[in-house]
Each structure stands twice: as structure tokens, then as C-alpha cells.
């Protein structure tokens, strides 16, 4: 997920940038309205986080521009729990806000919550494709070359977690969290290895030399396209 973060406090900004990148997000960091406008004009983002008070304007301006460009989740950062500011931001199209000071875990929770809400409301790609693998998210079915592949609920959820993060490196912790959300069962690190092995056996042409679920040594895993080259 590519996130635009506009925050003029450089200490807060750098801390958020580091923490969010550790969670696998790609962060474009800006400190002003003008640089935020430039980023919005040049890059397609999946989510925006705007501080309301900025040195050359306000996050409201950026919210308006972002809303005119696309329908993506927008979160506001505000220094005070002021009902007027909050209502104004929400009326302009923001999805949520968070009051400073806040914990990074709280922000992560808000990001995940609003992203899930958008997934449900927009149907977020009924069919996800990875090479010759197709994931029918409406019916929770997976196909390879139009032949259905039988996956367990946990295997399906794990593959879906990979597919929705195509191009990103996912840590084992992030993958375990994705499985826990749906199964509610205890899944440890060793069990995750087993599930990845089983999925590879079902979707890879050569499970011993995987080209779809690729290992990034020292970091985790990355979903790759069958036609991709490294």
C-alpha cells in the first residue's frame, strides 16, 4: 500500500515514516501543502494521512484535491480534539481522524480499519490475478489456468493476504496477523512455514523453485508474477 503522509513536524514525520515502513507500507513523506499537492499530481496513492495545520496552508486543501482525484481513504492528524475542526474535515471527505499525541499502534489500527471498510464498500477487485492464478474474492475460490484449486480456509486467507500486497515484502508477523484475523486459531511461526509450503505445492509449477510466493531472505516473503523477472 502506498501512503502519502503530510506532516510538518519532522520528528513526528520521521517516526511515523519509519514505523509505517516497518509494517510494509511504502511512504511518500511531505512537509508542506505545496509538496503534498505535487505528490498528489504525480503519484497514485492508496491512502493519505494529512496533518490539519501546515506551514503554508491546511490539510483541508489537500483533502479536497485528493478527493477530486480519486476515492481513497483519508485520515487527518489534529493537534486538538476540536469538534469544529473534526466535523469540517469529515464533511470535506475525510474518513477518520486521530488526535495528537497518539500511539503508532492506534494509527495502524485506524489505517487497517478504514482500508477494510473501503474493501467492503468498493468490492476492491472481485478478481485478483497473479500470473495464471485467479482469486475470486466474492466466492472465495482460486483457479489456476481455469482449474479450481482446493485450499483450506487458512490457506485461502494467506494467499489473499499475499495477493492484496503484491509487490510488497511481508514479514512473517504480518502474515500471521492476516491468518489470525479470520481463523481465530493459534498459528505459530512453524505452522506458517507449513502453510506456505502447502500453498506452493498447489499453485506453483515447481514448488522447489517458487516464482509466485518468493522468499526474501532475512525479511519475509513477496508475491511475484509468474512472468516477472528478478
UniProtKB/TrEMBL annotation:
<dbReference type="GO" id="GO:0000156">
    <property type="term" value="F:phosphorelay response regulator activity"/>
</dbReference>
<dbReference type="InterPro" id="IPR001867">
    <property type="entry name" value="OmpR/PhoB-type_DNA-bd"/>
</dbReference>
<feature type="domain" description="OmpR/PhoB-type">
    <location>
        <begin position="125"/>
        <end position="225"/>
    </location>
</feature>
<keyword id="KW-0597">Phosphoprotein</keyword>
<dbReference type="GO" id="GO:0006355">
    <property type="term" value="P:regulation of DNA-templated transcription"/>
</dbReference>
<dbReference type="GO" id="GO:0032993">
    <property type="term" value="C:protein-DNA complex"/>
</dbReference>
<dbReference type="InterPro" id="IPR001789">
    <property type="entry name" value="Sig_transdc_resp-reg_receiver"/>
</dbReference>
<keyword id="KW-0805">Transcription regulation</keyword>
<dbReference type="Pfam" id="PF00072">
    <property type="entry name" value="Response_reg"/>
</dbReference>
<dbReference type="GO" id="GO:0005829">
    <property type="term" value="C:cytosol"/>
</dbReference>
<comment type="function">
    <text>May play the central regulatory role in sporulation. It may be an element of the effector pathway responsible for the activation of sporulation genes in response to nutritional stress. Spo0A may act in concert with spo0H (a sigma factor) to control the expression of some genes that are critical to the sporulation process.</text>
</comment>
<keyword id="KW-0238">DNA-binding</keyword>
<feature type="DNA-binding region" description="OmpR/PhoB-type">
    <location>
        <begin position="125"/>
        <end position="225"/>
    </location>
</feature>
<keyword id="KW-0902">Two-component regulatory system</keyword>
<dbReference type="InterPro" id="IPR039420">
    <property type="entry name" value="WalR-like"/>
</dbReference>
<dbReference type="Pfam" id="PF00486">
    <property type="entry name" value="Trans_reg_C"/>
</dbReference>
<feature type="modified residue" description="4-aspartylphosphate">
    <location>
        <position position="51"/>
    </location>
</feature>
<dbReference type="InterPro" id="IPR011006">
    <property type="entry name" value="CheY-like_superfamily"/>
</dbReference>
<keyword id="KW-0804">Transcription</keyword>
<dbReference type="GO" id="GO:0000976">
    <property type="term" value="F:transcription cis-regulatory region binding"/>
</dbReference>
<feature type="domain" description="Response regulatory">
    <location>
        <begin position="2"/>
        <end position="115"/>
    </location>
</feature>
<dbReference type="InterPro" id="IPR036388">
    <property type="entry name" value="WH-like_DNA-bd_sf"/>
</dbReference>
<dbReference type="InterPro" id="IPR016032">
    <property type="entry name" value="Sig_transdc_resp-reg_C-effctor"/>
</dbReference>
<protein>
    <recommendedName>
        <fullName>Stage 0 sporulation protein A homolog</fullName>
    </recommendedName>
</protein>
Amino acid at each position: 500500500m502506498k501512503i502519502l503522509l503530510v506532516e510538518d513536524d519532522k520528528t513526528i514525520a520521521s517516526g511515523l515514516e519509519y514505523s509505517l515502513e516497518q509494517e510494509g507500507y511504502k511512504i511518500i513523506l511531505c512537509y508542506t501543502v505545496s509538496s503534498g499537492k505535487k505528490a498528489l499530481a504525480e503519484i497514485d496513492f492508496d491512502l493519505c494521512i494529512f496533518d490539519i495545520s501546515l506551514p503554508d496552508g491546511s490539510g483541508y486543501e489537500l483533502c479536497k484535491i485528493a478527493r477530486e482525484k480519486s476515492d481513497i481513504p483519508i485520515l487527518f492528524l489534529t493537534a486538538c480534539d476540536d469538534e469544529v475542526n473534526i466535523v469540517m474535515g469529515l464533511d470535506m471527505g475525510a474518513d477518520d481522524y486521530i488526535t495528537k499525541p497518539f500511539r503508532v499502534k492506534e494509527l495502524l489500527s485506524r489505517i487497517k480499519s478504514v482500508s477494510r471498510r473501503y474493501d467492503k464498500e468498493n468490492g476492491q477487485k472481485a478478481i485478483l490475478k497473479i500470473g495464471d492464478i485467479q482469486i475470486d474474492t466474492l466466492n472465495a475460490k482460486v483457479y489456476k489456468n481455469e482449474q479450481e484449486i482446493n485450499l483450506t480456509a487458512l490457506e485461502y486467507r494467506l494467499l489473499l493476504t499475499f495477493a492484496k500486497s503484491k509487490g510488497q515484502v511481508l514479514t512473517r508477523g504480518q502474515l500471521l496477523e492476516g491468518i489470525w484475523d479470520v481463523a481465530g486459531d493459534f498459528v505459530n511461526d512453524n505452522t506458517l512455514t507449513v502453510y506456505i509450503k502447502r500453498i506452493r505445492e498447489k499453485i506453483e509449477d515447481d514448488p522447489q523453485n517458487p516464482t509466485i510466493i518468493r522468499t526474501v531472505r532475512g525479511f519475509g516473503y513477496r508475491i511475484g508474477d509468474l512472468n516477472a523477472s528478478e
